[in-house]
């Protein structure tokens, strides 16, 4: 993992001191709310329905056991004993007091964490594959490049007041687990024909009220040009992106208006001007950053583990968990483990302070003290020996963290919705809870197979409903909560936009509709065809007929 | 100039210090309990309440002062729209948190 140097420490500590002064001045009235609001947002502090909300950055979803312990401590001491892991691989606290947030930020700074660039019209926390560095299907570990982008973008004076927020995702694997095509900029590590490693660069993706899948900017960008090219892309956007209408201010709108070819031409022209000034870092610095992410010294172990087979034969839930929540590691005899934060009937992404402490303890014991957060709102132990799985799962299960549903229908993304969020139109968590209760049968879920349901309580699309195999969008219909059903989206390498199936439903009707859609799939699928493949083959009509009838 | 209102209204805000939702009462204080909220029946009454509320804003007691439609049909005053009703109760998915526990749940 990356470790702060003296510059990082000084920068983050200075920001905490600055914010402490700003909070003091707000509390005494020296700053008005109008003056203070942008300052608190620059430190991840929002005002929601019931309280302030503090969004803490977890850069590219990687954190240490000690950092997780600190997150648990903050939940216990300053909040209500829990936190919410988000689709941006961050964590949100729902009840902090304004006057205590400087103390929270200082505690976070002590473990090399902060809340910078988790809000505002700047380059936000860079996201990536939750299995980075652990899987065999990646060209290279994307995290060193994510860290370089973090350092380049942190407090970047030119890009602190962009037309709108800006999200960059990066993946090193062929299987896109980071939804890169749904980001303002997506970077895909690849090898060219002579074996050099570089990036395919995508631009102009995004969700919100105008869903757009990113388009290819360059098929291959050498790694050594990464930062100067990003700088050129941001410069053109910063100069030409709309500032008159916040709903038309994202880069996707600019690229749609000027066309990807013209945007590329302007970026290339800008790049020619700046690529020879020292924006890109020298090879030695890249190597220094890469060294922080060197693979842990895992021993090569036997692939078979008797104790695993014995428990799997005796306990079906463990067997299902092995099948769904563990995946092949690049070092034989190891796996990566997804800890589901989606207990049936529970709140997607929420973890208590005790659960966070337990995950930290288990990371120390079984996963090289390393933890990841996925954009699907789960936690990952990336480096676990197979022989440790029975002990690990038993402890997880006792703490309510052993749900064997990773990648299945009940592994639902849901935004906080109107239960917390001032921008939402409807609740989304209760819909997720009702669906998981309706499908509370692991054998049935495994028969249904991979199926991603994503729920947003508002048009901001924080719950990624556009990318859901089944997407649900809450809308305010004359003061009543109403839910639209969308089908056929994907956040993976085969990214697609989900389409609205028909009129919306109330909170009961939407769950019934999901059940009807799943029934159609089970009746129509061919062989082991997935839900998404079946939908793409069948088209919407057969689903529409089942959900709305033939009248 | 008063805005035209479509029904009885109450004033909702968030406390500056902890962000908790609070409701303006008829004696100019802020209550955790929507049932204590003063209800404006016409534009003039709403103007009066807003003057008091904005003074509290200027005095750094509250932020985000918002007049919202009140529902008094059950004999107990509450915000009518679900979004503001949620503020008066707390998260529906955490029955152990928020004013749904008690107006004084954190004391």
Largest interface: A-B, 32 and 25 residues
Annotation field: number of helices of chain A: 18
Number of helices of chain B: 2
DSSP, total strands of chain B: 5
Instruction: Give the termini distance of chain A in whole angstroms.
Output: 59 Å
Structure explained in plain terms:
The complex is a heterodimer of chains A (551) and B (107). Chain A is of the alpha+beta class and 551 residues long. Chain A has helices at 6-27, 33-41, 65-78, 101-110, 143-153, 226-240, 251-258, 260-274, 283-292, 306-314, 316-325, 353-366, 389-398, 429-438, 442-448, 507-524, 531-538, 541-548, and strands spanning 45-47, 52-56, 62-64, 82-85, 91-93, 127-128, 168-171, 185-191, 197-203, 215-222, 326-328, 334-339, 350-352, 370-373, 379-385, 413-414, 453-456, 470-477, 480-487, 499-500. Chain A has four domains: 6-110, Alpha-Beta Complex (Sulfite Reductase Hemoprotein, domain 2); 134-292, Sulfite Reductase Hemoprotein, domain 1, CATH 3.30.413; 306-398, Alpha-Beta Complex (Sulfite Reductase Hemoprotein, domain 2); 413-548, 2-Layer Sandwich (Sulfite Reductase Hemoprotein, domain 1), CATH 3.30.413.10. Chain A is built from 18 helices and 20 strands. The longest helix of chain A is centred in the first third of the chain and has 22 residues, at 6-27. Chain A starts with 5 loop residues before the first helix and ends with a helix. The relative contact order of chain A is 0.09. The model of chain A has no long low-confidence stretch (mean pLDDT 97). Chain B has one domain. Helices cover 22% and strands 23% of the residues of chain B. Chain B has helices at 43-58, 82-89, and strands spanning 9-15, 21-24, 30-31, 62-71, 78-79. In chain B, strand 4 (62-71) and strand 5 form a beta hairpin. Chain B is globular and about 40 Å long. The mean pLDDT of chain B is 94. Chain A binds chain B through residues 26-29, 33, 47-52, 80, 94-95, 97-99, 347, 418-420, 422, 424-427, 429-430, 433, 479-481, and chain B through 14, 16-21, 57, 59-60, 63-64, 80-83, 86-87, 90-94, 97-98.
């Amino acid at each position: 993992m990356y470790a702060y140097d003296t510059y990082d420490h000084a920068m983050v500590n200075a920001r905490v001191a600055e914010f402490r002064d700003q909070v003091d001045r707000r509390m005494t009235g020296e700053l008005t709310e109008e003056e203070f609001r942008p300052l608190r947002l620059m430190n991840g502090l929002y005002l929601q329905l019931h309280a302030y909300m503090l969004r803490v950055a977890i850069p590219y979803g990687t954190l240490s056991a000690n950092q997780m312990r600190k997150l648990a401590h903050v939940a216990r001491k300053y909040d209500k004993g829990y936190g919410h892991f988000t689709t941006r691989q961050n964590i949100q606290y729902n009840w902090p007091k304004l006057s205590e947030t400087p103390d929270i930020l200082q505690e976070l700074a002590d473990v090399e964490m902060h809340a910078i660039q988790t809000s505002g019209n700047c380059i936000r926390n860079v996201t990536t594959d939750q299995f980075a560095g652990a899987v065999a299907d990646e060209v290279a570990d994307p995290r060193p490049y994510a860290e370089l982008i973090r350092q380049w973008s942190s407090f970047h004076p030119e890009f602190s007041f962009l037309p709108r927020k800006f999200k960059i995702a990066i993946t090193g694997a062929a299987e896109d687990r980071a939804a890169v095509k749904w980001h303002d900029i997506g970077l895909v590590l690849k090898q060219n024909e002579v074996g050099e490693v570089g990036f395919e660069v995508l631009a102009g993706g995004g969700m919100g009220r105008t869903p757009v899948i990113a388009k290819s900017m360059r098929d291959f960008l050498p790694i050594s040009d990464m930062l100067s090219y990003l700088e050129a892309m941001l410069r053109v956007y910063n100069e030409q992106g709309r500032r008159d209408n916040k709903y038309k201010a994202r880069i996707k709108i600019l690229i749609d208006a000027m066309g990807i070819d013209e945007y590329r031409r302007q970026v290339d022209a800008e790049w020619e001007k700046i690529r020879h000034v020292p924006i890109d870092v020298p090879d030695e610095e890249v190597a220094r950053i890469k060294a922080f992410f060197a693979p842990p010294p895992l021993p090569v172990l036997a692939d078979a583990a008797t104790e695993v087979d014995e428990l799997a034969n005796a306990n079906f839930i463990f067997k299902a968990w092995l099948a769904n929540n563990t995946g092949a590691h690049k070092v034989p005899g190891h796996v990566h483990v997804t800890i589901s934060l989606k207990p049936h009937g529970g709140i997607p992404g929420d973890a208590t302070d005790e659960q966070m402490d337990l995950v930290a303890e288990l990371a120390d014991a079984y996963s090289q003290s390393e933890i990841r957060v996925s954009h699907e709102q789960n936690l990952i132990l990336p480096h676990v020996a197979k022989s440790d799985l029975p002990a690990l799962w038993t402890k997880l299960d006792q703490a309510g963290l052993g749900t064997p549903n990773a990648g299945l229908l009940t592994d639902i993304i849901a935004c906080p919705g109107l239960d917390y969020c001032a921008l939402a139109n409807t609740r989304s968590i209760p819909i997720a809870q009702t669906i998981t209760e309706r499908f509370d049968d692991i054998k049935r879920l495994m028969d249904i197979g991979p199926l991603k349901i994503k729920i947003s309580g508002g048009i901001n699309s924080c719950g990624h409903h556009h990318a859901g195999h089944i997407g649900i969008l809450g809308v305010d219909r004359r003061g009543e909560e109403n839910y639209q059903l969308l089908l056929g989206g994907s956040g993976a390498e085969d990214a697609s936009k989900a389409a609205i199936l028909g009129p919306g439903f109330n909170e009961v009707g939407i769950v019934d509709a999901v059940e009807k859609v799943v029934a159609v799939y089970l009746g129509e699928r061919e062989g082991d065809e997935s839900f998404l493949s079946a939908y793409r083959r069948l088209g919407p009509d057969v689903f529409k007929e089942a959900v709305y009838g033939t009248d | 100039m008063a805005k035209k209102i479509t029904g009885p209204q109450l004033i909702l805000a968030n406390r500056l210090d902890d962000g908790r939702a609070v409701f303006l009462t008829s004696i100019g204080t802020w209550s955790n309990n929507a049932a204590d909220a003063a209800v404006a029946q016409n534009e003039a009454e709403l103007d009066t309440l807003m003057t008091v509320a904005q003074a509290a804003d200027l005095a750094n007691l509250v932020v985000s002062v918002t007049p919202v439609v009140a529902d008094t049909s059950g004999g107990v005053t509450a915000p009518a729209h679900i979004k503001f009703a949620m503020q008066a109760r707390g998260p529906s998915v955490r029955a152990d948190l928020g004013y749904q526990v008690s107006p004084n749940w954190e004391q």
